[in-house]
Amino acid sequence: MIKTLLYNFSPKRLSILNRYYRITQFYSFLRTTAWRGGIATVVFLLLLVCLEIFFLDFNTLLNNLVALYPPKIIYSLFLISETFLGLIPPEMFIAWASKLEAPWIALFFLASLSYAGGVIAYFIGTRLSLIPSVRSHIETKIQKHIINLRKWGGIFVFIGAISPIPHSLVSLASGLIRYNFGNYLMWALFRYMRFFLYALVIFGIL
Known about the structure:
Blueprint: H1 2-8, H2 11-23, H3 26-55, H4 58-68, H5 71-83, H6 90-97, H7 103-128, H8 132-141, H9 143-152, H10 154-162, H11 167-176, H12 181-188, H13 191-205
Helix pairs in contact: 5-7, 6-13, 7-11, 7-13, 10-11, 10-12, 10-13
């Protein structure tokens, strides 16, 4: 195992990987994704502030959500969203968690549900891969993600976990092409980091 680690991080190995990433345009993709992710985050935060200042008391709205709906309903909705296409931005749920009595525990639970939603999406992908007509249709719809996953493997799962790219779609694509499940689980753990970093900003504002 030690020899394998030394090989993976040897100058020769890193040089080969660097050359491969340049040829496959990974670095340009990473810059574009980071730029779009930064813009999306800034827009969300500005929208949050503008709503609070000009239109409604966002804190009151969140407090009303906490009072009206039990956590299990919100958590269930979030799990469904994180399993099927990421229909609702996770930032909305992070903002909701900020109003609970134990926000950081709620955040950890949200991150765990997001991780679990990705795993469910992965296994949905593996099942759908057994139906040729359905597989062909889905591969057409998420072709870009499948191509990137085949080019970059776990690194693309990592990007899906921390960036605005829907984590559920990357997970579905991973299952569809039967990407190694153990590697998927490892790289998807960075989903927790995304929730933690976003919470540092959102909890500070709210």
